[in-house]
Design goal:
Blueprint: H1 2-20, H2 36-42, E1 49-59, H3 68-87, E2 91-96, E3 104-110, H4 115-122, H5 126-129, E4 133-143, H6 149-156
Antiparallel strand pairs: 1-3, 1-4, 2-3
């Protein structure tokens, strides 16, 4: 039986090689617009991608506890923290969600490779500290070009928070 499995595996590899010309798979064509310097600056792999951590911010258990000036102060700190993390290159994207039934309030995409690193950043948010928002973190693999959002946004935003 082991002999038959080995023959089947050899046959499968041979068939794949015959179809693609390579036992390793077809070689992807090289992008004629590839900019090695930019790829390195953005931390891109060969596919132009990198690891991030996606954070969904949900309504927290203390959302209703803060009103008026106190709530405004917390959210001013929330926005200041977003700007700080973005300027440090730790935050690729952030923004609110529209009204929804999932209690989703907003998202962060952190420019870090692990959830542990992102947890250390998300707890610097005053709205998270206060329990107004609760983060749900997960690893995400996306385009390294996201790292250009902050620079571009700074050039197109007429007003700031």
């Amino acid at each position: 039986m082991k002999y038959i499995k080995n023959i089947a595996a050899i046959f499968a590899i041979s068939a794949f090689t015959a179809l693609t010309g390579s036992a390793q798979g077809p070689e992807a064509p090289t992008n004629p617009k590839f900019d090695a310097e930019l790829a390195k600056k953005l931390g891109a792999d060969d596919m132009g991608m990198k690891n991030f951590v996606l954070v969904i911010l949900k309504t927290g258990p203390r959302d209703a506890d803060f009103k008026g000036e106190e709530r405004s102060k917390i959210f001013a700190g929330h926005f200041a923290n977003i700007n700080k993390l973005a300027s440090e290159g730790k935050l690729a994207v952030a923004g609110p969600f529209g009204k929804n039934e999932k209690a989703y309030r907003g998202l962060y995409i952190f420019n870090v490779a692990t959830v542990d690193e992102a947890e250390k950043l998300v707890v610097t948010d005053p709205a998270v500290k206060a329990g107004i928002l609760v983060p749900d973190l997960t690893p995400w693999y996306g385009s390294a070009a996201l790292m250009q959002v902050t620079e571009t946004h700074g050039r197109i935003a007429k007003k700031s928070f």
